[in-house]
């Protein structure tokens, strides 16, 4: 049996890193440490059953603890960020609006231990087998860092499937900045330098998941979210900068094999088992890490979904602000994987219910929208359903748009019927559940008990 590895999770003075985030979540009751030995393949099942995030101090056959479930709910996501739960979208939007350039350091915790070349062995990491029909063990929390000569640094979130002690397949199946950058190397027949960070603070992880415009440095976004610059360090074997306070860094290259190596199936963010894909190979040339690292196993689907939820809500605030609609609240719903389905409350002027729908459906990931008035608590599904029931006429207030860009992960677009490389087309809809023009607001006045302020129930119990 493996003895528990006592790894301290305390924040460094003046700068909260991944470990500081874990320590704060533990104090707030959002993370629990497990001392009893656990097999790596049981981590996903145990994490999914737990009411908090879990840190497994004793992983059998490994001296590295594993943590998971950090962003499983909206409350845990708020705890990881240190933000109020009701302000995730607004806080994210404010951070994006005030980016801060990162600080470059020369010494970093992520390089306390260095393995090069033949010393590299991915089997030394407790990479878990996560879902029943997965094609292999996966690094699910990898944040990839690259540097484009024209567009500059780029960071994004990509899964990697274990193949050999030095090779993994990386999912570059859908459109992304990294895929566009890699395509140029592939066409020249050259390997592309890439570094993968595991165990970074929620600010860096969420910024990497954010669909920033091409040429925008995601680590500047991370600085805006954090309110102070992110600390980066140059990799030991290549000129790419990575978070200095990360737990583990894999330095390597994407081989110019193109989309030829089998990858998957893998449990997707939409909660469904994905298909077998063919993707490029990532060869690891160096592993650097803290003296006693923590491995982060991000759990699908909710951790992936909530990493994107605040960014989706921020995008809704931004696009509605651009068209002059006054928004009071936005929620990316869990039923829509924290991005595909949106509920919005607005202070409506004539026609703005449908204006809002048209704008929101233009966002790439959003597939369905409900827009209602600001007297509705959109955190209460019963109130939202009430508004749809009594403020909507289906022939007038349901907006359907066809021929829009879809996502391969959505089975309803039949992606298996598409030619290789072709993007799917989808239909989207919105429900205008605002008070219709021409109906006075008093028609929706809620009933109240007579004399409710004149008596107290406590006096009669």
From TrEMBL:
Superkingdom of the source species: Bacteria
Pfam families per the UniProt record, alphabetical: UbiD, UbiD_C, UbiD_N
Entry's Gene Ontology molecular function annotations: carboxy-lyase activity
Keyword Protein biosynthesis: no
Domain 3-octaprenyl-4-hydroxybenzoate carboxy-lyase-like N-terminal positions: 22-93
CC per GO annotation: cytoplasm
Domain 3-octaprenyl-4-hydroxybenzoate carboxy-lyase-like Rift-related: 106-298
Keywords per UniProt: Ubiquinone
Ranges where the 3-octaprenyl-4-hydroxybenzoate carboxy-lyase-like C-terminal domain occurs: 306-433
Record family assignment: Belongs to the UbiD family.
Name recorded for this polypeptide: Ubiquinone biosynthesis protein UbiD
Source organism (scientific name): Skermanella stibiiresistens SB22
């Amino acid at each position: 049996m493996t003895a528990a590895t006592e790894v301290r999770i305390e924040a460094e003075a003046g700068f909260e890193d991944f470990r500081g985030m874990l320590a704060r979540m533990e104090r707030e009751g959002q993370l629990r440490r497990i001392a009893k030995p656990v097999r790596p393949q049981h981590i996903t099942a145990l994490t999914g059953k737990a009411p908090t995030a879990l840190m497994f101090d004793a992983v059998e056959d490994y001296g590295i603890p594993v943590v998971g479930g950090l962003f499983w709910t909206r409350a845990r996501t708020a705890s990881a960020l240190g933000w109020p739960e009701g302000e995730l979208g607004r806080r994210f939007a404010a951070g994006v609006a005030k980016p801060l350039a990162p600080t470059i350091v020369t010494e970093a915790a992520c390089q306390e231990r260095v393995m090069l070349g033949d010393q590299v062995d991915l089997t030394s990491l407790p990479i878990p087998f996560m879902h029943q029909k997965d094609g292999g063990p996966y690094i699910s929390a990898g944040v990839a860092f690259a540097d484009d000569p024209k567009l500059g640094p780029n960071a994004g979130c990509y899964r990697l499937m274990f193949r050999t002690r030095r090779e993994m397949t990386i999912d570059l199946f859908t459109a992304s900045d990294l895929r566009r950058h890699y395509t140029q190397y592939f066409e020249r027949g050259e390997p592309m330098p890439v570094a993968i960070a595991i165990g970074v603070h929620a600010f860096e992880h969420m910024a990497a998941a954010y669909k920033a415009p091409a040429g925008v440095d995601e680590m500047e976004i991370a600085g805006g979210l954090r309110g102070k610059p992110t600390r980066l360090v140059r990799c030991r074997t290549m000129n790419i900068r990575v978070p200095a306070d990360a737990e583990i860094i894999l330095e390597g290259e994407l081989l110019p094999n193109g989309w030829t190596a089998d990858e998957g199936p893998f449990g997707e963010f939409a909660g469904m088992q994905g298909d077998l894909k063919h993707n490029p190979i990532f060869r690891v040339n160096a592993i650097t890490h803290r003296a006693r690292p923590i491995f982060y196993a991000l759990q699908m689907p909710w951790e992936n979904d909530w990493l994107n939820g605040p960014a989706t809500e921020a995008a809704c605030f931004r696009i509605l602000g651009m068209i002059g609609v006054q928004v009071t609240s936005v929620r990316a719903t869990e039923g829509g994987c924290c991005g595909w389905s949106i509920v919005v409350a607005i202070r409506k002027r004539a026609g703005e219910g449908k204006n809002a729908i048209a704008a929101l459906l233009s966002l790439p990931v959003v597939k369905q929208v409900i827009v209602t008035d600001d007297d509705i608590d959109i955190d209460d599904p019963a109130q939202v359903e009430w508004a749809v029931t009594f403020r909507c006429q289906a022939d007038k207030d349901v907006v359907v748009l066809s021929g829009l860009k879809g996502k391969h992960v959505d089975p309803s677009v039949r992606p298996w019927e598409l030619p290789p490389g072709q993007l799917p087309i989808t239909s989207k809809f919105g429900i205008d559940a605002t008070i219709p023009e021409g109906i006075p607001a008093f028609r929706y006045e809620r009933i109240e008990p007579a004399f409710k302020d004149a008596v107290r129930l406590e006096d009669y119990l």
